[in-house]
Amino acid sequence: MAIRIPDPDDCAGYDDSTDADGLVQAGQRFVEYGEVVEDRRTGLVWTRSANPLREPLSWPDALIAVNAMNREGFLGAHDWRMPNRRELRSLICHCAKQPALPPGHPFREVFLGWCWTSTTKAGQSAYAWNVHLEGGRMFYSRKDEFRLLWPVRGQSNVLAQTGQSVCYDATGVAVPCPGTGQDADLRTGVPWPAPRFQHTPQGALDLLTGLCWLEPKRLTGEVNTWHEAVAYAASFGPGWRLPNIDELESLVDADRANPALHPELTTTLALPIALSAEGLWSSTSSGFDPAWAFVLYVQKGAVGVGFKPGAEFHVWPVHEAQP
Predict the structure, then answer these.
(1) Cis preceding linkage at 151, omega within 30
(2) Is the peptide bond before 195 cis (omega within 30 degrees of 0)?
(3) How many helices (H) and strands (E) does the chain have?
């Protein structure tokens, strides 16, 4: 069964109301249990404080700190970890800003800066991915830089694995994974089917998400403004549209760069746009300024923003299911 990618424009978040018996109401996304918060959308459990250590750490020191938390039974648990890139991004509400979290969220001490993930940047393994809580962008930083740690625990049956399979130290040298707590060590999330993509007359059907990406041979390869991109995607008929940013990010293989896409998309399907495009427009507008929209930077695997009037990025239309 394919996983469902929530709409990143759906900012439904926290409702602290209860029913007559004092029970949590149905539909509430975040549920507090003392100093931890369960996200019922993903099944993950986060510290209520987004900055429980009260200070930024280098990437290797943050991994060491998580191990110490587990030895000490931090908040009564021994299975904390540094979130991978998809887990941390699952908290982002793209229509919000300062912070880019769902309105009314229950979290405290949310710093409007960068938080580490356990996922190394492919092709530049002395760097790791981090997410910016002010506006929801995701980029990479040197592992010796200082970022915050927001620990997580639990397993999700709606978030896919990132694809990362190799662990690296702070200098970028490959190391054995067991015990590191890195993304490639834990590999949390829904495993990818193999093969993952099925080539159909309409395009590439992703068996993980159920999304069908337009047949590459039908793409022009031209760059467009955002409004042109929206119209171009819809021009292929009913159901075809510009993908949202989480749908685009689902294509990223964290083990790869230039492009940072699953190899089936760049070899089996011979996808020319994936080999040449700097970025792909999404339908997701920025919560900072609606004149900007989120973009997947295909070569890097990063999530940033583009100015809608600028003819800078490519388009890859998507359909909810094989039409």
Answers:
(1) no
(2) yes
(3) 7, 16
Q: DSSP letters along 93-115, please?
A: -TT--SS-S-TT---BS--SSEE
SS3 67: helix
What are the beta bridge partners of residue 140?
Answer: 129
C-alpha–C-alpha distance, residues 7 and 100, integer Å? 15
Backbone angles phi, psi at 116, to 5 degrees: -70, 150
Helix (H, G, I), strand (E, B) or coil at 311: coil
Cα atoms found within 13 Å of the Cα of residue 77, Cβ hemisphere only:
16
Residue that is written with structure tokens 């009037």 in the block = 309
Q: What is the mean pLDDT of the chain?
A: 91
- Residue 296 exposed, middle or buried by CB count within 10 Å (0-12, 13-18, 19+): buried
Q: Which CATH class is domain 197-319?
A: alpha beta
User: What backbone phi and psi angles, to 5 degrees, belong to 149?
Assistant: -115, 125
In this predicted model, what pLDDT tens digit does every residue of 242-290 receive, in sequence order? 999 999 999 999 999 999 999 888 875 555 555 567 899 999 999 989 9
pLDDT tens digits, one per residue of 87-122:
999 999 999 999 999 999 999 999 999 999 999 999
Q: What is the DSSP letter of 135?
A: T
Output the CA torsion sign for 265, 317, 5, 301: positive
Q: 174: which 2 tokens?
A: 């490959």
Q: For the chain, which residues make up each domain, given as ranges?
A: 30-186, 197-319
